[in-house]
Amino acid sequence: MKTLLISGSPRMSKSTSVYLLNAIKDKLGENNETILFELSKNVDNKVTKKIVENLSDTDNIVIAYPLYVDCLPSHLLSALKYIEKNIKSRENNMHVYQIVNNGFYDAQQNSIAIDILWQWCRKCRMKKGVALAVGAGEMAQQSPLGHGTSTNLGRAVDVLVQDIMNKNSKDTVYVEPNFPRFLYKMAAHMGWRKLAKANGLKVSDILKRL
Q1: CA pair distance 146, 209, nearest whole angstrom
Q2: Distance set, CA 7 to CA 52, 62, 63, 79 (Å)
Q3: Closest by alpha carbon to 109, among 146, 70, 161, 82?
Q4: What is the C-alpha end-to-end distance of the chain, expressed in Å?
Q5: CA–CA distance, 176 with 152 (Å, rounded to integer)
Q6: Which residues form the NADPH-dependent FMN reductase-like domain (predicted)?
Q7: At 34, phi and psi to the nearest 5?
Q8: pLDDT tens for residues 88-139?
């Protein structure tokens, strides 16, 4: 089985997207061929061309990306348009899986972006697999997958790997960290205040409305 792993995060190797794709690559094991592609924010057609070149004998595609204004990052959208335009066969048995994470606690916030990618999948006549929606994505690397704050996420990734291997198509899986929501919100507020202070602003400046 051949699986293409595509990261759409501009943070590249340090991102949650690449972190989770590498976890999937390890869990798929050596008996399955996996190729990881990292798309930079400066659209590189060399990478997208390589993706297209590998599509003819690919069984699965896993696309991981961060949520940007309830949508996919613009450079990922550009790459998907290129793939759609240059894909050689519109009749194929490829299954597409996606992992989207956001900075909000609630994983449900990812639902619009997930639907957008499924629309692309239909246009390319690829088969819909499973979407994994991750809330509080910044916490994904705080603990090893399957432990601590990432207990739920680790379990979800294990299930997703089995879905990929079995070419399953299911409803979206929503995952949030093993961490209280109110504490996450408190930490976020502290972060905003610290950032404001570093830029010469007061809390009142953050709360101003245009």
Answers
A1: 41
A2: 15, 8, 6, 11
A3: 70
A4: 54
A5: 7
A6: 1-85
A7: -130, 135
A8: 665 578 999 999 999 999 999 999 999 999 999 999 999 999 999 999 998 9
Using the Cα atoms of residue 154, residue 189, residue 10 and residue 83 in order, give the sign of their dihedral.
Answer: positive
Nearest to 128 by CA among 140, 116, 138: 116
| Exposure letters 111-144 (e unless 16+ CB within 10 A, then b) | bebbebbbebbeebebeebbbbbbbbbbbbeebe
Q: What is the DSSP string of 134-193?
A: ESSGGGTTTS-TTSGGGHHHHHHHHHHHHHHHHT---PPEEE--SS-HHHHHHHHHHHHH
The most confident of 37-51, 73-87, 164-178, 190-204, by mean pLDDT: 164-178
How far apart are the C-alpha atoms of 182 and 105, rounded to whole Å?
Answer: 10
CATH number of 2-179: 3.40.50.360
